[in-house]
Amino acid sequence: MRKESAGPGLLSILLGAVAAGPLLLYGLSATSEAIITDLGISEAQFGLLATVCFACAAVGNATLGRLADRRSDLTLMTAVFLIAALALGLAGVPGGYLVLLIAAGLSGVAQSFTNGVTNRILLERVPASKRIGWVGVKQSGVQVSQLVASLSFPLLAVLVGWRGTALLTALLPLLLLLLTWRILRTVPLLHPTREARPSSEGSTSGSSDASAESPAAPRGHSAAVWALAAFGCLNGIGVQATNVYLPLFAVRELDFSLILGGATAAVAGVVGVTARIGWARVMARGTSGPLLLLILALTALAGVGAFLGADATGWAALLWTAVVLHGASALGVSVVLMSVLLRSIPSAKMASSSGVVTAGMFAGFAIGPLGMGLLISSGGGFTLGWMAVGVVYLLSTLLAVILVSRRRRPGSA
After folding, report:
1. Which of 21, 86, 203, 279 could pair covalently with 110 via S-S, beta carbons 3.0-4.6 A apart?
2. What is the pLDDT, as a whole number, of residue 346?
3. Where are the stretches annotated Disordered (predicted)?
4. Regions of the chain where pLDDT drops below 70
């Protein structure tokens, strides 16, 4: 088969891999009011769907990273798309709340090693001059997923119901899988003669040219990796507490329709895509990662203020302002975290190191929706929920300040 250089085809499957896992959860969030009514569940039970999803993803990232280091790119990418399709298909089965919980868990498993394998593909198949820019594009896959699900699920649910929509959406990961099989067999490794690793593509692999310039990976994981994981956890709490309940907040508190409520999440997704690509370009110019994390944390705090203002006044303009600030800040954090890893971790350790940081993020993702569901189900309602999110972002701001103060020490970004 003719070999090709890294181009739009490879970038599209990297973006698709990041987007496939979250499709189910964003679709459920966009139709949350209909699901809560149909299944007769509480807001906290609905939040448990996201908690199960992200808890499975966190455990998977923490435990499967080293295993992923020893598996081929094609094997891991195939697993991502097949499990994502299975999760969507199971959600379409009329089996009640328990079946939906299992589907949510499978969706989390599909996200367990996505960052690790896509980061490794960047290191081993993409020239160094393109990598950081490509990080922004491929990490925007989460927001592309949010955009697609938030627009399509409410519209299709009107025609075929939310279960039928999940079944139709299951075709997307399968189509991406077919594209992946073709692309990964045509884009070669940059240095195929370095340390061999099992590969179903028929090649050996190893560290890229950037890896040779990176410091040797320490035994276990460095303090910097754990600090990034902690920041990802705090940010993740706020991100998913907002993402999962944003359409419900718009529908219940500001009297938006189901479709317009879904549009709030879609707008956040559009802004998030732009933000991730933009922040990646800023990182590519050599900007300090910790400094960007501080800026993003402060902007996220401002977004919480706008959510509280919308809750207090019922002004739609404040809600849309909050949506934009949320998309521009909290949704852009992962690209900064992954870019910092690409600057300092060799490809042989990329899956496991990415797994630690991603596990931190998914731990936060698991905590956020359940906590928010419990708070808004209490007497404090959404007001108490947004205040709690503000406290979380304040803690992430303080951690970013600490990281900035240490940025000139060895190993800092």
Report:
1. 21
2. 66
3. 194-216
4. 1-6, 65-66, 68-69, 191-221, 345-352, 407-413
pLDDT at res. 378: 84
Nearest to 149 by CA among 168, 177, 175, 176: 168
Model pLDDT, residue 70: 75
Token pair, residue 233, equals 């956890």
Measured between alpha carbons, how far is 333 from 350 in angstroms, rounded to an integer? 18
- HEC sequence for 15-74: HHHHHHCCHHHHHHHHCHHHHHHHHCCCHHHHHHHHHHHHHHHHHHHHHHHHHHHCCCHH
Say what the pLDDT of residue 54 is.
85
190: helix, strand or coil: coil
**Length of the chain in residues, anyone?**
413
Q: How distant, in Å, are the alpha carbons of 49, 102, 245 from that of 105? A: 8, 5, 19
pLDDT of residue 132: 77
Helix (H) or strand (E) segment spanning residue 330? none
Q: Is 70 exposed, middle or buried (0-12, 13-18, 19+ CB in 10 A)?
A: exposed
What three-state secondary structure class fits 408? coil
Instruction: For residue 111, report the phi and psi dihedrals to the nearest 5 degrees.
Output: -95, 5
